[in-house]
Amino acid sequence: MIAMDQIIREGDPILRQKTEKVELPASEEDKETLSEMLQFVKNSQDDEMVKKYQLRPGVGLAAPQIGISKRMLAVHFTDFHDKSYSYGLFNPKILSHSVEKTYLQNGEGCLSVDRDVPGIVPRYARITVKATTLEGEEVKLRLKGYAAIVLQHEIDHLDGVMFYDHINQDNPFQPPENSTPAEEM
Ligand code: SB7
Ligand code: NI
């Protein structure tokens, strides 16, 4: 079981590396790792597990956050329209994105960041992601609003990018041009 003490924190150079593609079909080891990652994200939203293991709730996890520099991520969340998403993904790639931006009004956090970094994180409002699922299926996901934000946060980790890299330093709460808050999408 993945626990909080395995989560790589800010300052470790692995979080800033660009990760390697996973060779497909995925090895049993890579599949095992990714399913552990998905289980961790689920556990982090289960009251009993949170209490027992002092987990910090999170909606996703990228492999570099457990010290593995490979293109794998897990997400498990419900959006503002009660639509659920639960995926372990290998080699996710953003095929296309909108010009329109979105953001969370309260900003973002990260399991690898033990401090509050206030500010708006501009994200594309809509993205199309191609990936291979944990089950070995090739999928094309069309995502908008909150779901698009979560996937962009996780895919950023695979490229060594942290959420606060996107915050406008001079005016952290200035909404980007041509944007709608995800809460209103
Ligand atoms: C706010 C939080 C997350 C994504 C988008 C908005 C994920 C938090 C957990 N993680 O650090 C996963 O990388
Ligand atoms: Ni993160």
Automatic annotation (TrEMBL):
Q: Name one GO molecular function term.
A: peptide deformylase activity
Catalytic activity from the UniProt record: N-terminal N-formyl-L-methionyl-[peptide] + H2O = N-terminal L-methionyl-[peptide] + formate
Which InterPro entries does the UniProt record give? Peptide_deformylase, Peptide_deformylase_sf
- Describe the function of this protein: Removes the formyl group from the N-terminal Met of newly synthesized proteins. Requires at least a dipeptide for an efficient rate of reaction. N-terminal L-methionine is a prerequisite for activity but the enzyme has broad specificity at other positions.
GO terms, biological process: translation
Copy out the cofactor comment: Binds 1 Fe(2+) ion.
- Which organism encodes this protein? Tenuibacillus multivorans
Cofactors named for this entry? Fe(2+)
Listed name of the protein: Peptide deformylase
Q: What's the name of its gene?
A: def
Its Enzyme Commission number? 3.5.1.88
State the UniProt keywords alphabetically.
Hydrolase, Iron, Metal-binding, Protein biosynthesis
Binding annotation for Fe cation: 110, 153, 157
Q: What class of enzyme is it?
A: hydrolase
Specify whether RNA-binding is a keyword of the entry: no
Superkingdom of the source species: Bacteria
Gene3D superfamilies per UniProt:
Peptide deformylase (3.90.45.10)
Q: PANTHER family given for it? A: PEPTIDE DEFORMYLASE, PEPTIDE DEFORMYLASE 2
SUPFAM superfamilies cross-referenced by the UniProt entry = Peptide deformylase (SSF56420)
